[in-house]
Each structure stands twice: as structure tokens, then as C-alpha cells.
């Protein structure tokens, strides 16, 4: 597994890097068979240290965790505990409800746009044009997953919505968290 350990405006020593590699490697190895990459970023927010960790698995799924503590080592340890809990849940769901995926998730390229909001304008009248102004354009990836895997990926990422290509129907689908706590699934015909 490749490690990318860095600090935002703080120095990360060799001892902390070694600690991260050992502890995170042990936690991930216990629950994920083929992790490919781990990205750990340390930063400081006020008097607290913040540790953000992202682990990419060979199946294409991603697990993320974040923790705040007064000391940098305890921030990492709390983050590592959260990561281990997520991976344990992920493995249990795979074992209980899903067949093991023999091949990595197929990923398709797509364009992602950020549109300007109309709330910035002083007047709340009709807009001049129905074409929204594009603020930014980026490349994004759309994974090819089953609905169960998409829900799992959305929960692992802590995202409110996930766009994916449905393996069963080869169409683009959306899963999202509803206000009542349930998961919604949009499957166009």
C-alpha cells in the first residue's frame, strides 16, 4: 500500500510517519484485502490538531475518516479508530449481503460543472437568460456499481448523494440520503 502523509502548514516528523504507517497499515490489513493507497493529512484548527485519512481499496471503494484532538498522535489514533470501524462495517456488509467482487470497479469519465447561484444578484426579478453561468469545469469519475455497493460507498464517503452507473441496467442512477434518514434511489427508465 502506498502512503501519502502530509501536513498543512505543520511539519510531520519521521516518528509520526512511522506510527501512521504501522497503525493504519495494521487496521486496514485486518479488514481490507487489497488496499492500494492511503492519504493522511494533518492540520491545525485553533488549538486542536485535525487528522483526515482516506483509504482507496482495489475494489474502487473509498473509506474516509476525520478526527480532532488536542495532541497530534491522539488525533491520528481517533481517526484510525473511525477508519477501522468503517472498514469493519464494509467487510461485514460484503460478507453478509454482497458477493465478493472479483474485478475492480469500472470507472467512467464525466464532466462536473459548478454553476453560479442567482441569489447573488440584488434584484429578485426574472433572470436575463435561462442559461446558468458556469463558474468552474472539472473532470469527475462515475463508478459502475450495484445499488447496494453504491449505498455502501455513499455511507463510507459520508456523502449526501452518489451518482453511479448501475451494473444491472447500464444506466446512470442516483442514491441519496433523505431527510427522514432513509436512502432514496433514482432509476430512470
From TrEMBL:
- Which ranges carry the Sigma 54 modulation/S30EA ribosomal protein C-terminal domain? 131-184
One Gene Ontology molecular-function label: ribosomal small subunit binding
Which GO biological process annotations does it have?
Answer: negative regulation of translational elongation
A GO cellular component annotation in the UniProt record: cytosolic small ribosomal subunit
Keyword Cytoplasm on entry: yes
Source organism superkingdom: Bacteria
Q: Name the Gene3D superfamilies on file.
A: Ribosome hibernation promotion factor-like, Sigma 54 modulation/S30EA ribosomal protein, C-terminal domain
Q: Which InterPro entries match?
A: HPF/YfiA_ribosome-assoc, HPF_long/plastid, RHF-like, RHF/RaiA, Ribosom_S30AE_C, Ribosom_S30AE_C_sf
The record's subcellular location field reads: Cytoplasm
Which of UniProt's keywords are assigned here? Cytoplasm, Translation regulation
NCBIfam families for the chain? yfiA (TIGR00741)
By its UniProt entry, which HAMAP family does this protein fall under? HPF
- State the protein's purpose: Required for dimerization of active 70S ribosomes into 100S ribosomes in stationary phase; 100S ribosomes are translationally inactive and sometimes present during exponential growth.
The entry describes its oligomerization and partners as:
Associates exclusively with 100S ribosomes, which are dimers of 70S ribosomes. Interacts with 100S ribosomes.
- The protein here is known as Ribosome hibernation promoting factor
- The species is Roseobacter ponti
Its encoding gene is what? raiA
Amino acid at each position: 500500500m502506498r502512503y501519502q502523509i502530509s501536513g498543512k502548514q505543520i511539519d510531520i516528523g519521521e516518528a509520526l510517519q512511522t506510527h501512521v504507517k504501522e497503525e493504519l497499515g495494521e487496521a486496514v490489513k485486518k479488514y481490507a484485502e487489497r488496499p492500494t493507497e492511503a492519504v493522511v493529512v494533518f492540520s491545525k484548527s485553533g488549538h486542536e490538531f485535525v487528522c483526515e485519512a482516506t483509504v482507496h481499496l482495489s475494489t474502487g471503494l473509498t473509506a474516509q475518516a476525520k478526527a480532532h484532538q488536542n495532541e497530534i498522535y491522539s488525533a491520528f489514533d481517533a481517526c484510525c479508530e473511525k477508519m477501522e470501524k468503517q472498514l469493519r462495517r464494509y467487510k461485514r456488509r460484503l460478507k453478509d449481503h454482497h458477493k465478493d467482487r472479483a474485478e475492480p470497479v469500472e470507472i467512467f469519465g464525466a464532466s462536473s460543472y459548478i454553476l453560479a447561484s442567482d441569489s447573488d444578484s440584488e434584484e429578485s426579478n426574472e433572470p436575463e437568460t435561462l442559461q446558468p453561468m458556469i463558474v468552474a469545469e472539472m473532470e469527475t469519475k462515475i463508478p459502475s456499481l450495484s445499488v447496494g455497493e453504491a449505498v455502501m460507498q455513499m455511507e463510507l464517503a459520508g456523502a449526501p448523494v452518489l451518482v453511479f452507473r448501475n451494473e444491472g441496467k447500464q444506466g446512470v442512477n442516483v442514491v441519496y440520503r433523505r431527510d427522514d434518514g432513509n436512502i432514496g434511489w433514482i432509476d430512470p427508465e
